[in-house]
Amino acid sequence: MDLDKIARLLEMLSDRDVREFAYEDADVKLRLRYGAEVVTVAAPHAVAAHAPVAHAAPAQAPAHAPAAAAEQPSRVVTVEAPMVGTLYRSSAPGAKPFVEVGDRVQKGQVLCIIEAMKLMNELESEVSGKVTAILIENGSPVQFGQALFLVDPS
Asked: Quick one: 3 exposed, middle or buried, by C-beta within 10 A (0-12, 13-18, 19+)?
C-alpha cells in the first residue's frame, strides 16, 4: 500500500462516521482509530505513527532537555513527538512560529508541524495553558516520544 492510497483512504474515512478501521495483508498492517489516542501503520521497515498525545511530565526532564526544564514543577505537561520526522515551528519558511515561550495556548491549538514521509502533521496541544519551554529547534529531526514542548496548564 503506498502513501497515496493511505492518504485517499484517510480522506474517505474522515468523510464518514467511521471510528475504527483495520486492514492487513502480507506486507502491510494498518489500523486507524479516530477519536482515540493511537493511529498505527506498520509495514516491513516502516515507522509507526501515532496521533498527538500530551503526557504529564514527571519532576525530572528528559536527558536532552535544557537544565531549566529540569526545574519545572510536576504539573507541567510534556508534549512529546508522536512520530519520527522533521519539526517545523511555523507553517512556512519565514512565517511567524505557531507558539513561543510564554504564549498562552488553548487545547487543540497547533504547536508545530512534523513532516513524516512527505506528509505534514499538525501537533496540537492537549491542554490549555502557558508554553514554558520549547525543547527543539526549527527544522530539527525528532524521534518518537521525544519531549518537544512544556505547557503549564495553570
From this structure: exposed
Q: Are 78 and 136 in contact (CB under 8 A)?
A: no
Q: Which of 106, 98, 108, 107 is nearest to 134 (CA)?
A: 98
Span 108-126, pLDDT tens digits? 999 999 998 888 899 999 9
CATH topology of domain 54-152: OB fold (Dihydrolipoamide Acetyltransferase, E2P) (2.40.50)
Q: pLDDT digit string (tens) for 64-86?
A: 444 444 454 468 888 999 999 99
Domain boundaries, the chain: 3-42, 54-152
